[in-house]
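ugh ok fine here u go
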Amino acid sequence: MIETLVGSRVHIVGVGGAGMSGLARLLVGMGATVSGSDAADSPILDELRRVGVMVEVGHAAEHAAGAQIVTWSPAVASDNVEVLDAVAHGARAMTRAQVLASLGATTRVIGLTGTHGKTTATSMMVHVMHAAGRDPSRLLGADVVGIGANGHWGDQDLILEVDESYGSFALLSPFALGLLNVEADHLDHYGNLESLESAFSTLVERTLGPVVVWGDDPGAQRVTRSTRRSVISVGTTSDGDWCVSQVQLNRRGSNFRLEGPSASVELALSVVGAHNVANASVVAVLAMELGISGADVASGLSAFVGAPRRFEFLGTWRGVEVYEDYAHLPGEISATLRATRAAGYERIGVVFQPHRVTRTLSLAEDFGSCFDGATMVVVTDVYSAGESNPEGITGELVARSIRRHLPGLTTAYCAELDRLPDVLEELHDTLDVLLLLGAGDVAKVAPSLHGGLES
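structure:
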């Protein structure tokens, strides 16, 4: 299929999204002629125009005229006018899953997967490969800080963030795989946790080479127990193949020792939290299984300074340090709060913006207990991400769950982001740190805080 993509006109509907913008860049690098459209203009579209993507704003049949292949974001309906018109004029319609499968059929895919931590771990792997002097292709959901854009066609393996949403990995057969964790998510597609875990199990079984798993995660454990193939386990207990020990966490990063049958490596990270120790451990073992030296692994991981919107420092507000984090699942939120505590913060304020109506409904009870360790939580209205909301679900559902599960935690509901600065103004002198959590646009409140942010 790569031979078909090279030199072809490929049209991408929803090209401004995190995953599809990277795909556009990768396809341009491969030699395809790429066009695309998105509902609204954005800086990402400007960046795509600069690298040669022909981008239109809005959706109209003529935008896809002349396309030989048309693909679309999972957030775009398959009956989109551009998709239908392109197919009617002879274009081949390919889902994102089919595009990824076609890439994996002719180049080695080194994948990082799990319900959270994928972007971070994939970025870590790119840094490790660069430290080893390699220029791999890459495709992930955010730019790689210090290296480049989220999509790049190189001269070696494809380092891929293997996304489970909407079955995107259903046709992919990676060469090597790192499995970070498995937690209930995207149940609007999978139906239940068992089906989601089954999909991960099938992905593991399709992997041609080494599979490295974070053995401390219960969901990942269930997935690997249900497969018919052996995996390489890394974790903090001695019963895995590789053991993480001597973990030291602080406000600026972490240090730990990684020991296995073939090596013992001292690793230092410039990102905080036990969850990043887990991510880095899976990346390190997988890289060494692929022939990267321990020295290059250590060098690459030390150069990684974080992914955008992952515990990203925004500034100081009235003496309170403000961070943005993409955490939007219960497990991610718990991990972020543990990392914040380990970094030395004691009075932790959280603004949480629930993401997607279906996710809020299915995980409301789990959200209720995941804010343990916070001092104060303000829940905003749901960021719908385009989903319909016939039942009128709001963030109050999450706030009520928190009050029920954590009655001693100060919890408030503030439907409108514009009102948040006033709500937070009354609380700043009770906080050391403020976390803006969610996968939507919650961070836009930061510049509006009364008194402003200092860098």
